[in-house]
Design brief:
This protein is α+β, with helices and mostly antiparallel strands. It contains 12 helices and 10 strands. It has a 6-stranded antiparallel sheet with strand order 1-2-9-4-7-10, with helices on one face. The chain has a 4-stranded antiparallel sheet with strand order 3-8-5-6, with no helix packed on it. Strand 5 and strand 6 form a beta hairpin. The chain is globular.
Length: 284
């Protein structure tokens, strides 16, 4: 089992890219075969061998294909198919980055979709170069990071943030520490202007983004604790729910699980793509 996460070192790239990540499952690795991927306000460009299949279940609507692809921001929990061996090298973009980048062939905003991508057309990378990059990712995470920086800077230099992107970026820095109703005041603009800019650049609302961030933080908190240590009333209070029944309804609506089910099989909901990727055992 190989997995790592690195952050871009190039300032141009880091304007649009949150991090790079690698996850690989060998033939003998043990782990959850059909993990679930948390709602994610970020988009991902995922590189893999041309013949390697992928599958994402959007609440019964299955999107599948082979090779490299883009996972657009998604506001629902997805089920993955990790029953076979695989390798994914991912680029996690910052929230709202696709507004400025404008992926060819897709309007904005595009949410809850997966699409095959032509890396030759997008990044001027051949299939041979992708295989070399995957080999480099296995050998050295820092060298792979530097190579990705050099590839992406040539592509991303042509894009720029406008005033909507800049306002959204400022909002994202404080969205988890300030009440939404006060964000406009904090950023010296009207709340209506902020809401419109955020929706324009991301495709979802400030409240939806805050909810996704809260879910991720809560699952990380729960994952770090044994089943016997979890006090659901305390969890409800810690993460801003009015009471334990409210938390139960929220988890069931977001993940399809009750808290009791989650406590038993919590690895199913760990974000493996640019987030927490410990749901697989450290074996290969």
């Amino acid at each position: 089992m190989i997995q790592w996460l690195q952050f871009p070192q190039c300032s141009v790239v880091s304007t649009f890219v949150e991090c790079y990540w690698l996850i690989e499952k060998g033939e003998q690795a043990q782990g959850v075969q059909f993990p679930k991927l948390n709602p994610d306000p970020s988009g991902h460009l995922i590189m893999s061998p041309a013949d390697q299949p992928y599958s994402y279940n959007f609440g019964g609507n299955i999107e599948c294909g082979v090779g490299s692809h883009i996972l657009f921001p998604h506001i629902q929990t997805l089920q993955l198919d990790h029953s076979c061996s695989f390798i994914y090298l991912g680029i996690k973009f910052k929230v709202g980055a696709f507004y400025a980048i404008k992926i060819p062939g897709f309007g904005h905003p595009t949410l809850d979709q997966v699409a095959a991508i032509d890396l030759q057309a997008l990044l001027v990378m051949s299939e041979l170069e992708v295989i070399d990059l995957l080999s480099l990712a296995r050998a050295s995470n820092t060298l792979c990071r530097d190579k990705l920086d050099s590839v992406l800077v040539r592509w991303l230099t042509q894009f720029h943030q406008d005033r909507y992107s800049e306002l959204t970026s400022k909002a994202l820095k404080v969205i988890n520490i300030e009440p939404i109703a006060r964000l406009g005041e904090q950023l010296h603009c009207s709340q209506r202007t902020l809401e419109r800019a955020f929706s324009k650049t991301t495709g979802f609302t400030l409240k939806q983004c805050q909810s996704m961030n809260r879910l991720e933080a809560m699952l990380e908190y729960l994952y770090s604790r044994n089943k016997e240590e979890i006090d659901w009333a305390e969890v409800a209070c810690r993460f801003g729910f009015s009471d334990q029944p409210h938390l139960i309804r929220y988890l069931k609506s977001q993940l399809g699980f009750t808290p009791a089910k989650y406590a038993t099989d919590r690895g199913l909901t760990i974000d493996a793509y640019g987030g927490i990727s410990n749901y697989l055992h450290e074996s290969s």
